[in-house]
Amino acid sequence: MQLWDSLASVSASHSVLTLGFFDGVHLGHQALLREVVGYAQQHRCPAVVVTLWPHPRIVLGKEPGGFHLINGLNYKLELLEASGVDGVVVLEFTLELARQSPLEFLQRVVSMPSCPQCIFMGYDHRFGRGGAGDFTVLRQFCGPLGIDTRQGQPLQLDGLEVSSTLVRRAIQQGDTAYAARLMGRNFSFRGTVAHGFQLGQRMGFPTANIEPYEPWQLVPGHGVYEGWCRIRTGSGGERFKAVVNVGTRPTVSSARAVSIEAHLLDFQGDLYGQELEVGFNRKLRPELKFSSVDDLKVQIAKDIECVRTGR
Q1: Distance of CA 59 to the CA centre of its chain
Q2: What domains can be seen in the chain, in order of their start residue?
Q3: How many angstroms separate the first and last alpha carbons of the chain?
Q4: pLDDT tens digits, residue range 254-305?
Q5: Inter-residue contact 191 to 262 (CB < 8 Å)
Q6: DSSP secondary structure letters along 130-192
């Protein structure tokens, strides 16, 4: 898959484009991408995704508590490549870009070295200043230029339209099992193992203290999860079942800072400084404050057995 950082540098000729942020690359995104790739194969042209980074809400600072994303950029690019597209344009979202009208933005798109022959867009995607551009604007702009336009249709699951917002809400509420259904895979993120307080080690349950790569990485709501960890450095991507705790460790600490700690089942070795991918299958229980460390140890042993057996 080719990667470009500007529309002017795109070398793909007479391509089919799709516009969108694609956070989470969920089932709705996947359906749209299948249409794009299918069109490209039928017309023997390259399939190209045009996306933005960072997210407009991060740059514009419209979220009081900060806006969090399902995937970092590199992970999203891997998911897009797996969908079968031939290339991705990653446009840096700046305040200057935010000020462009929908027509100014589309003019940039069609001014590529080779004008696209078709542009796909999701049913709810917006572009241009204030999000004023929609599919109707796209179609009216492209029609006189002879550029075909196609609109993806909403995909429903359990009576709800699958969207990045719905996925984020499920993750924030700790319902990672539902998030997995919406995305067709487990929610996971990547980070580096940092030095912690080694409390798990002293209790007999060593844990990896994981710091996400991105400051805006979304993490599940507080709780204890059945999950897995894939070691991305030093061991060829080996994957281990894991008990993952997201929260403030109230039994052993009065601090309010949130940490992500994972106990990898049947792992022996040093993880400090290594890169991990942490996946979440389902929530086992809420994070609790126990009356003693011994009570906490008993519960952790139960959590491990639950993850080991899948019960």
Answers
A1: 18
A2: 2-161 (3.40.50.620), 188-309 (2.40.30.30)
A3: 41
A4: 677 899 999 999 999 889 999 999 999 999 999 998 989 899 999 999 999 9
A5: no
A6: GG-B-HHHHHHHHGGGT-EEEEPPP-EETTEE--HHHHHHHHHTT-HHHHHHHHTS-EEEEEE
Give the dihedral sign, CA 22/23/25/30: negative
Write the CB contacts of 243 (distance below 8 Å, at least 6 apart in sequence).
224, 225, 226, 227, 262, 263, 265, 284, 300, 303, 304, 307
> What does pTM read for this prediction?
0.94
Q: What angle do CA 34, 38, 44 make, to 5 degrees?
A: 145
- As a whole-number percent, the residues of the chain with pLDDT over 90 amount to 81
- 245 Cβ contact list (under 8 Å, min separation 6): 207, 223, 224, 225, 259, 260, 261, 262, 287
Q: Amino acid identity, residue 238?
A: E
Of 264, 170, 262, 174, nearest to 222 by C-alpha is: 174
Give the C-alpha separation, 161 to 124, whole Å: 11
Q: Is the peptide bond before 54 cis (omega within 30 degrees of 0)?
A: yes
Q: Please report the pLDDT score of residue 234 as a whole number.
A: 64
DSSP state of 214: S
